[in-house]
Amino acid sequence: MDIATLYRRSTLVVALVALSAGIAVYFLNGWFHRTFLAGLGITQPSGDAIGTVLILSVAYLAQRLVSLAFFRDQFAGMATVQQQMASSSRNVEVVNEEVSQELRAVPTYNGVLRNQLDSVIQQTEQAAYDITSRLQAIDGVVGRLNEFVTTSSSEANQLAEHSEENIVQNQRLIGEMRQYIETRITEAQADQQRVAQVVSEARSLESLTNLIKDIAAQTNLLALNAAIEAARAGEAGRGFAVVADEVRKLSAETERAVQAINRGIQGVAGAIETQLQEKLSSVNLDREQAALGQFADQLVQVGTSYEDILRHQAMVIETVRGSSEELATMFMDTLASVQFQDVTRQQIEHTMQALERLDSHLAGLAERLLLAERPDFAYVPLAEHLDQLYSQYVMDSQRSTHQNSLNQSGGASGGSPKVELF
User: Region (Disordered) spans which residues (predicted)?
Assistant: First the structure.
């Protein structure tokens, strides 16, 4: 029941009692003074005093009776309110005791959370250490790769310089070979012409043998004519017949010799033409030229392929070197990124410190509930704990998160975070 209801009830009871007293005085005043006081032999002032006492006593009793009739107690419901307040007070004390016990149990709960956070710190530190160890092993491999690439690059540069000299020399040899091919073709063509000329000259001797053959035939004819004339001369021409016979025999021998010479010349010319025809033929010369040209082209292709191989090798080594340097840079960036664990550790430690502050604050609230009757009991408000926590931040991200959580605006203070890295 609130105080306004109590006031209304008290006013209603007093009004009823006052109205009843006023009516009684109005109607009983004459009887009281003329009959009752006279019968008792009491003076009017004494009667008025006695009447006032009676009226007040009756009014008091009437107020209690009216309150009892309307509100079932003698004090306008104040007894019920007192009982309710007593019961509520006992309930508040019980609740305060329960809340106080729960508040005292919060540090235990926060202790479990702190232990869990500490376990997280240890696990992340171990994981960061393992990652760092593996990254250091990778760094050793990358270092050896860099050394190998550097050595290979140096060797490749030296090989490229030596190969360029060989390529220049090969190009010079190819030029000399092409010149030799052209000279060889020219000489082969000249040999072909000379052989053709020799065969032609050898075949031209046939006309001479034919001339000798004609002379032998005419000599044989003359010898035959001489033999006929000697036979006509008889005994005188017998010696001339012998000479004519010898001349005819000589002519026959000459014809046979000429035929043999002619066959020999033809055989020699045929042998020369047969032996050198295949070697000096245009087809063979073309084949030889094509073969030598193909060989020269293959040498050129070999040189070009060798140059391409050198360029490709240089490109591969350069690519590997660039990738190795990029890998080393990425490794250093990754190694620096592992430092996140220390940032996380410090943030968790700040959170654990905040939990310890909360433990202390909750313990103070528990004492405040139990010592509610002590107005001098003091404790630090939670807002001041938040301000102290904010002042201990070392990173702008912590300040920003704090302000966002409280719906506050304000730029984070400048400067590098004071984070201790391992």
Answer: 400-422
Q: What is the pLDDT of residue 412?
A: 44
Query: What is the Cα–Cα distance from 136 to 151, expressed in whole angstroms?
Result: 22
Nearest Cα neighbor of 22 from 59, 61, 75 is 59
Q: Provide the token pair at 396.
A: 């702008």
Question: How far apart are alpha carbons 251 and 260 in whole angstroms?
Answer: 14
Query: Does 257 reside within a domain?
Result: yes
Looking at the structure, tell me whether residues 48 and 169 fall in a common domain.
Answer: no
Please, are residues 138 and 306 in contact by the beta-carbon 8 Å criterion? no
What CATH number did the domain enclosing 276 receive? Answer: 1.10.287.950
Residues 52 and 179 in one domain: no
Using only the alpha carbons of the chain, give its radius of gyration.
73
220 vs 262: CA distance, rounded Å: 19
Q: Go through 240-263 and write b for each residue having 16 or more CB atoms within 10 A of its CB, e for each that does not.
A: ebeebeebbeebeebbeebeebbe
Tally of domains in the chain: 2
Q: Residue 181 belongs to what domain range?
A: 160-329
Q: What is the pLDDT of residue 350?
A: 80
Out of 54, 76, 98, a domain closes at 76
**Please, are residues 204 and 262 in contact by the beta-carbon 8 Å criterion?**
no
Q: Is the domain of 181 the same as that of 48?
A: no
**On the CB side of 280, how many CA atoms lie within 13 Å of its CA?**
18
**Domain endpoint, select from 76, 95, 116:** 76
**Predicted pLDDT at 421:** 43
227 and 241 Cβ atoms separated by less than 8 Å: yes
CB 414 within 8 A of CB 400: no
Q: Do the beta carbons of residue 396 and residue 412 sit within 8 Å?
A: yes
Q: Is residue 406 part of a domain?
A: no
* Predicted local distance difference test score (pLDDT) of residue 304: 77
pTM over 0.70: no
Helix (H, G, I), strand (E, B) or coil at 417: coil
Our separate counts of H helices and E strands in the chain read: 9, 0
Low-confidence ranges of the chain (pLDDT < 50): 412-422
